[in-house]
Hints:
Chain A is an alpha/beta fold. Chain A is built from 11 helices and 8 strands. Chain A has a 6-stranded parallel β-sheet with strand order 2-1-3-4-8-7, sandwiched between helices. A two-stranded antiparallel ribbon of chain A has the order 5-6. In chain B, α1 (134-148) runs parallel beside α7 (279-291), α3 (188-200) packs parallel to α4 (219-227) and α9 (372-382) packs across α10.
Amino acid sequence: xxxxxxxxxxxxxxxxxxxxxxxxxxxxxxxxxxxxxxxxxxxxxxxxxxxxxxxxxxxxxxxxxxxxxxxxxxxxxxxxxxxxxxxxxxxxxxxxxxxxxxxxxxxxxxxxxxxxxxxxxxxxxxxxxxxxxxxxxxxxxxxxxxxxxxxxxxxxxxxxxxxxxxxxxxxxxxxxxxxxxxxxxxxxxxxxxxxxxxxxxxxxxxxxxxxxxxxxxxxxxxxxxxxxxxxxxxxxxxxxxxxxxxxxxxxxxxxxxxxxxxxxxxxxxxxxxxxxxxxxxxxxxxxxxxxxxxxxxxxxxxxxxxxxxxxxxxxxxxxxxxxxxxxxxxxxx
Amino acid sequence: xxxxxxxxxxxxxxxxxxxxxxxxxxxxxxxxxxxxxxxxxxxxxxxxxxxxxxxxxxxxxxxxxxxxxxxxxxxxxxxxxxxxxxxxxxxxxxxxxxxxxxxxxxxxxxxxxxxxxxxxxxxxxxxxxxxxxxxxxxxxxxxxxxxxxxxxxxxxxxxxxxxxxxxxxxxxxxxxxxxxxxxxxxxxxxxxxxxxxxxxxxxxxxxxxxxxxxxxxxxxxxxxxxxxxxxxxxxxxxxxxxxxxxxxxxxxxxxxxxxxxxxxxxxxxxxxxxxxxxxxxxxxxxxxxxxxxxxxxxxxxxxxxxxxxxxxxxxxxxxxxxxxxxxxxxxxxxxxxxxxxxxxxxxxxxxxxxxxxxxxxxxxxxxxxxxxxxxxxxxxxxxxxxxxxxxxxxxxxxxxxxxxxxxxxxxxxxxxxxxxxxxxxxxxxxxxxxxxxxxxxxxxxxxxxxxxxx
Lengths: 333, 454
């Protein structure tokens, strides 16, 4: 099976209904506003340690979640807040984990990079670059073993794509036909090293070729293109044909983490992406020009989201720190 | 309502910084994502972005100001239609939660009265016994675990069609089929990660490393993924699985195939570590390991695989973790060991008995959890202790036992504890050098004589 490039056009004719388009808009905007608030709370010292924001990449996870079904699994790296919100985890619980409080998803013991939700089939939040790749294949292995028809979305970055364990995993996933979608979120920078400086071949989606894993490149600033590619990948995996690779070309507006001044790229490069390719603005434009929504409708959505995000910040500030006894719990089951 | 823009923390360690440059002026309209200012931290100059929309009403801290504390108000943002006159500067409120000291673990009592030790026999008197090698016992433990629970599977290099590089899984493919006995490519990092992921989703993998030396390739998944996830997830999910295989020196295989990792794994909270000596323990501990809801490191030994022991011939024989086994009672000195180290311990005890020295020999069986109560109880009787292991001396299992005895049984010790370990060298290939690199029975005997002042 040869790898192929996507032939999908940016969706001039949306393959979704007005309501679906609005839902995608809402989901992306929630992530954007949530992350802005997280950045603010970090600035206030309420969030500590490392904090990696997803701003700019929202269409990737929102588009793919639109292609997922109940019970499908997902696992990702430390840039994980967007994935959690997109799979339906509660904003309050996520924000409270960022502030290290009792009300957080991990009772404050995991932090920004290490969060999980059994209920939402979200398997982390992993801090070691590319460790989530074999873990994701393992989740898919369990699905195949249990014959439950589920698929796993295994997200990793262009930087992680250079780790050896990715190719160990590709080999096993293809060998065993694991229902695993490898989603490479190519935001073009592995921390401060551009793809050009770290990657011998630009076409990361072709790296499954020698394992017989089909792959395609997708415009990750276009949520409809992502959704369509996700549907293709899901259908492939669910039908028992084995893994699939999606290289989704995206862009992060902020630094790698909160303490990254991002001197490895120009301000103009970032601004150009924001002005011309912003995933949320693109959908906003579609909603307005297609007369699916009025400015007032969008303002109302914006207001609702702000309320959710502000409430999460309040919850995260007011939730107590974990009891000191928590230091000694959850070490053994 | 006017809101204050506060000096941001822009790194995990920043407490104050320099407001290098304002990128906006009073009266400017800003929206989320606009750059407000450049701020110098101890590490870099960072751009500081607006989060909310509004009009810059007042700049409170002039550019070029050094030592601006995190969370100090640096400007005021007005909403549409608000006047700058309405601004009342308020003191910055530090909202970061106070840091409280964590409670220290309960300080050890200098001299415990009598530690509570489970001394119940592993099998009742009169239990029918059979003769079995360690190899057969491990296989039987795994097979019984697999018959009992469909979510248990075995994966590793050569475990299925080859029937195991050391024939541990002989016959298992025929019984359980290729779905549950899975040959992997030679890819330890990868398959350890795949197995750990499968355990998150509710399966119970048994991962065979052809030897534990190769588990170094998989260390990240064993420690970072398997051992820590239960804690990091606040108890939501963990890794009920077993990593097993031969550990330590075999014979003449050189430095890269001869390391004892007991002390390495023992250090990690979240892991359990079993290291059986006898076949009955190999079987009983294996069954317990498979049923355990945590990642278990199961350290076997190639030289032990062919040794034969009595094993209870009963339906469901298990051995609990954290319960040492007293192989031999004695009054003059306690030898503590585990795994193949027991060979030297028991041999030394036999020889010392001929010289009239009565040795109590304790087999830890699991080194995490470790039955320190049994060690202390024994030392309270003998007042002397020698530890025996094949691993390296610095940071050895024995050195941990020594520290426990120092803290919890100091008043009972009549001599310093001696740790008999492998030598502090990579394993040599030459037969004579290898013999000297490992612990020897003579060294154990000499250590016992030293602590008994004989």
